[in-house]
Amino acid sequence: MAGRRATNSSSSSSIDSSNSNHPSLSQPNTDLSTDLRLGLSISTFHHHHHSSSYSREQRSDWPPIKPHLRSALAGKGNNLDHLPTFFVKVYMEGIPIGRKLDLFAQDGYDALVRTLGHMFRTTILCPDVDRVHSKDYHVLTYEDKDGDWMMVGDVPWEMFLTTVKRLKITSADIC
Amino acid sequence: MTYFPEEVLEHIFDFLSSHLDRNAVSLVCKSWFRVERWSRRRVFIGNCYAVSPERLIARFPRVRALTLKGKPHFADFNLVPHDWGGFVSPWIEAMTKSYPGLEELRLKRMVVSDDSLELLSRSFPNFKSLVLVSCEGFTTDGLAAIAANCKHLLELDLQENEVDDSRGQWLSCFPDSCTSLVSLNFACLKGEVNLVALERLVARCPNLRSLRLNRSVNLDTLRKILMQAPQLVDLGTGSYVHHPNSEAYVKLINVVKSYKSVRSLSGFLEVAPRCLPSIYPICLNLTSLNLSYAPGIQSTQLIKLIHHCRNLQRLWILDCIGDKGLGVVASSCKELQELRVFPSDPHGVGNAAVTEEGLVAISMGCPKLHSLLYFCQQMTNAALITVAKNCPNFTRFRLCILDPKKPDPVTLQPLDEGFGAIVQSCKGLRRLSLSGLLTDRVFLYIGVYAEQLEMLSVAFAGEGDKGMLYVLNGCKNLRKLEIMDGPFGDVALLMDVGKYETMRSLWMSSCEVTLGGCKALASKMPMINVEIINENDQMEENPDDGMKVEKLYLYRTLDGSRRDAPDFVWTL
C-alpha cells in the first residue's frame, strides 16, 4: 500500500521529470544537482512519515479512511450525473417552430412552468388553481409514452420524467 | 466431584459458544480441559502473530471455524508498509494436514495469495464459508479456484479487499452443480464479471439471501437478478444508472416496487440520483442502509430518501447529507442504533461537511444509538456534553474532526471536557477514537471513567507522557491502544511494562519513543514482540539509542519473534 505508492512516485515523478536523458544511477556523477535531486526524491518518498507538523494537503494517513473509500471519493469528480441532459421538444400552439428544453435542468414543476413562461413570453397556468378561459393564458400539456396528451402536473415529478415525450403549450380557452 | 462420562461432558460443552465460557471451563480440571479442547470448534485469533499455527492445532485439534487478523488497524490508513506481513499461507498449510474438517475461514487485514486460495479450495471437502476483509495479495484466479472446487460453498464474502482482476472469468467457474450459495459479495472487485453467468448462478441458488454486486453489474442485469431471486434480504447494487425515460427503467421500477424482502441495502457504486426514487417503495422495510460509496448524491435527494426509511437501525452515509439532513434522520429514524458519517471531501475545506449541530440533533432524536463514527468539520464541548447526556448507551464512539488539533470553535478551548462527559456518561463504552485539540486532561478522564474501554485511538493529542500513563494505569480492560503523532515517549512506554501482557497490542507512530527505550522494553518483556518499522534507507549500521522511532508496534505472543519479518521491520 504505502510502500507501493511511494515506489511509484519515486520512479515516475521526481527523477524522470528532471532527468531528460540518463537514469541518474547509471553514471558516476559529481554533479551536485543530481545528488540533490536524488536526495529530494527520497525525502518525498518519506514525506508523509516525517511530517509531524500537520499539513492540510494530501496526507495519505489523514483523515483516517480506508483505501477503498479514499479511491471511491477521488473518483467522485468523474461521476457526473450520467446522462446529464434530457431535452424534449416544446411547441406553443399557433407557432410552427418549436423549442427544446432540458427537463433535467428543472427541479420540479414550478421551475418548469417558470422557464417555459420566460421562453415563450406567456403566463402558464396551474390547471387546478387558475380557472381562466382566455386566449391570453396558456396551459401546459405533454404527450406520454402511450401517445396520449395529458395535463402537466398531476403525477409526481419523477414519474412524469419517466413518461414524458414532448410538451405543448395550448391556449387556456380550450381546456 | 460427581463423575460424568466424557460423552456427557462433551454434549454439555456443545452448548457453550462463548470463548470466555469455554476458557473458564478449561480451567476446572484436567478432564474438563481435555474434553473442552477436543470439542472446541470455533477459534478467534486477534493477532496472527500471537500464536503459531502449530500451537493452535496442538491446543485445539478439531477446529472447524477460524478467524484470523493480521496487520494492525492503522494499516487501513497507509501507515503500515506493503510486505509488512500477515501472511495466511503458513496457516493454511498447517491446517491442510491437521484440520481436514475445516468449514469456515475469516481473515482480516491479511495477505492471501492465489496459491493459498487454491490450496484451501482443494484441501477441505466440507469448506463452506470464506470471508475476506481488507485483505490483499490475490487475484480473481484465486477466486476462480474457490468457485470451482468448493462443492459445498455457502458463503463467499469479499469486503474492501485489494484484488487484482486478471483476465479470467471467475464467476463462470461456479459449476452448474453449485446450488448452495447463501451469501455472495464481490462489491470490491473492480473488473467485469460475466453477467450471464451471474444471472444463471443466482437463478440456481434458491437459498441466496445476501448478494452484493460490483460496479460492472448494470441496472438491467440487476432487474433480471431481482426477478430470479425474490428472496434476497441483503442487496448491494452495482451501477444504478439509467435514463429515467427509458423502457428498462420503468421495468425496474415495477420489479423493485414489489421487492419486499430486502432489509439491508448498499452499493450504488455508481448512481444517477434521479433513479433513486425507484427505491422509495422498499425503504420502509430497510433496517440497514449504506450509501457511503455512492458519490454525487445531493443533500436534498438524500433527505427525500431518508424520509421513507422509518425503520432504519444502521445508516452509513456521506457528509453531503449535511446537518439539516441529519436533522431529518433524527426525526425519521427513531430505531437508529448505528450511524457512520464519512467525509465526502477528505482534503478540501468543503461545504459538504457536518458539524456538531448534526450530531446533537441525532442524539436528541435517536435514543437507541450506541455506535457512532462521525467525520465532521468541527465539534464543541457543549455539544459533546449534550450528546453524552442524551445517549448514555454508547459502546462505540469515534469522532474525527477533519482538521486535527482544532479546538472548540466557540470557546477556543480543548475538547477535554466534551470527551470527558462522554466517558463519564457512557459506562459501557468499549471503543473510543479522539480528535481535535486535546490536552492530558482528556486522558485523565479516560483513565478514571472508561472502565470498559477496550480500544482507544489517538491522533495529534496530549501534552506529554502523563496522558498515556493515565490511560495505561486506568483502563483495566484495555486491549488495543493506537497512537499517531503524539508527544509520548520512553517514560510513558516503560513505566508499567507488565501492562502490555494484558493487551493485544500497542501502536505508536510519530511519537517521542526512542530506540533505546524500545530496546529496554524488549529486554524486560520476553513475551512481547517489540517491532520497529524503519523505512529510511539511509539508516546506519549501528543507529544511536537516542534515535526517535518512527513506528513502534508491540504485541504479546507465545511464540517469539516472527520469522517472516521483512528488512524494514526490526524485532528487538
From TrEMBL, chain A:
Keywords assigned by UniProt, alphabetized: Auxin signaling pathway, Nucleus, Repressor, Transcription, Transcription regulation
Q: Where is the composition biased (Low complexity)?
A: 8-26
Q: Where in the cell is it found?
A: Nucleus
Q: Please give the residue ranges the record annotates as the region Disordered.
A: 1-30
An example of a Gene Ontology cellular component annotation for this protein is: nucleus
* A Pfam family: AUX_IAA
> What SUPFAM superfamilies does UniProt report for this protein, alphabetically?
CAD & PB1 domains (SSF54277)
Q: Which family does it belong to?
A: Belongs to the Aux/IAA family.
Per the entry, what this protein does is:
Aux/IAA proteins are short-lived transcriptional factors that function as repressors of early auxin response genes at low auxin concentrations.
Q: Which PANTHER family match?
A: AUXIN-RESPONSIVE PROTEIN, AUXIN-RESPONSIVE PROTEIN IAA17
Quaternary structure and partners:
Homodimers and heterodimers.
Q: What is this protein called?
A: Auxin-responsive protein
Q: What is the taxonomic lineage of the source species?
A: Eukaryota, Viridiplantae, Streptophyta, Embryophyta, Tracheophyta
UniProtKB/TrEMBL annotation, chain B:
Q: Where is the F-box domain?
A: 4-45
Is Nucleus set as a keyword in this record?
Answer: yes
Carries keyword Chaperone? no
Q: Which SMART domains match?
A: FBOX, LRR_CC
Pathways involved = Protein modification; protein ubiquitination
One Pfam family, short name: F-box_5
Q: Which GO terms describe its biological process?
A: auxin-activated signaling pathway; pollen maturation; SCF-dependent proteasomal ubiquitin-dependent protein catabolic process
Q: Record's CDD domains?
A: F-box_AtTIR1-like
Q: Which GO terms describe its cellular component?
A: nucleus; SCF ubiquitin ligase complex
InterPro entries (UniProt xref): COI1_F-box (IPR041567), F-box-like_dom_sf (IPR036047), F-box_dom (IPR001810), Leu-rich_rpt (IPR001611), Leu-rich_rpt_Cys-con_subtyp (IPR006553), LRR_dom_sf (IPR032675), Transp_inhibit (IPR041101)
Q: What is its main location?
A: nucleus
List the molecular function annotations (GO) for this entry.
auxin binding
- Entry keyword set: Auxin signaling pathway, Nucleus, Ubl conjugation pathway
Q: Where in the cell is it found?
A: Nucleus
Protein name as annotated: F-box domain-containing protein
Per the UniProt record, the source organism is Tetracentron sinense
Q: What is the lineage of its organism?
A: Eukaryota, Viridiplantae, Streptophyta, Embryophyta, Tracheophyta
